């Protein structure tokens, strides 16, 4: 399984009223072994929730479930560890690690990954700004191709707070044909994995619907960042 977090915006140190090019930092990706993904995703979702960030498993178009009463995610971690070890009883482990060490390493990777994410301002009211999606490894090439189209087109533009969202929406329209091709590629990749027609069609479309939602949330985050810079500039004494 492949986790793709929201792209983070690299802001220019300029007043928000100015029209500036949009520069996007490359995505940082967390991979979880498919054999134990069903076991560890609840722990990842719990960790995300504690940072006010939703985690969407797009294959089925639904949230990954976990116990919301687990305030520090420790109980969810133990459950994930136990379920992962159970799954590994019938699955090969790469390398020479023991099952216990292998699972512990994956869970530590999740901890380090979530800890590396930026803190969101505004709490859960702004949780959409941290939207992350989980997609199948086989879909990654198509997913990256569509994302590459979006970011490339965006690099040709300059925006102000008033034009950010129209520009982000227009870029989706420009990349529509790339998206359509990517959906077909994703369906074909999932067919090779043995998924039935209905499931792979739904998963492929859900993946790119989530990609669009993620892209627009980047636009909203960018706009809020520009406005915040403008507010800070207004509070600074005139020099």
Short note summarizing the structure:
This protein has 239 residues and is of the alpha+beta class. It has 7 helices and 9 strands.
Task: Walk me through the structure.
- This protein has one domain.
- It has 239 residues and is α+β, with helices and mostly antiparallel strands.
- The protein has helices spanning 37-49, 74-87, 99-116, 140-155, 164-174, 176-192, 197-235; strands at 2-4, 9-10, 20-21, 23-24, 30-31, 55-57, 62-63, 132-135, 158-159.
- The chain is built from seven helices and nine strands; from the N terminus they run βββββαββααβαβααα.
- The longest helix has 39 residues, at 197-235.
- The strands form three sheets. The chain has a five-stranded mixed β-sheet, with helices on both faces. It has a two-stranded antiparallel sheet with strand order 2-4. Strands 3-9 form a two-stranded antiparallel ribbon.
- The radius of gyration is 20 Å and the shape is flat.
- A hairpin with a 4-residue loop joins strand 6 (55-57) and strand 7.
- The protein starts with a strand and ends with a helix.
């Amino acid at each position: 399984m492949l986790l793709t977090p929201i792209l983070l915006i690299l802001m220019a140190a300029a007043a928000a009223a100015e029209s500036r090019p949009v520069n996007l930092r490359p995505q940082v990706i967390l991979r979880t072994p498919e054999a134990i993904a069903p076991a560890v995703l609840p722990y990842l979702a719990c960790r995300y929730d504690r940072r006010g960030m939703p985690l969407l498993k797009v294959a089925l178009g639904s949230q990954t479930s976990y116990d919301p009463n687990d305030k520090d995610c420790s109980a969810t971690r133990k459950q994930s560890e136990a379920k992962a070890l159970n799954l590994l009883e019938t699955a090969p482990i790469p390398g020479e690690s023991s099952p216990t060490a292998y699972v512990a390493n994956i869970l530590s990777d999740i901890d380090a990954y979530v800890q590396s994410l930026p803190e969101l301002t505004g709490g859960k009211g702004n949780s959409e700004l941290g939207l992350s999606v989980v997609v199948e490894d086989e879909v990654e090439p198509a997913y990256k191709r569509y994302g590459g189209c979006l970011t490339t087109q965006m690099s040709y533009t300059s925006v102000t707070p008033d034009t950010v969202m129209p520009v982000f929406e227009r870029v989706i329209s420009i990349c529509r044909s790339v998206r359509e091709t990517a959906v077909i590629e994703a369906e074909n990749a999932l067919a090779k994995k043995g998924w039935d027609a209905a499931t792979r069609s739904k998963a492929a479309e859900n993946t790119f619907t989530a990609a669009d939602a993620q892209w627009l949330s980047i636009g909203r985050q960018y706009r809020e960042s520009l406005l915040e810079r403008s507010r800070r500039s207004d509070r600074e004494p005139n020099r």
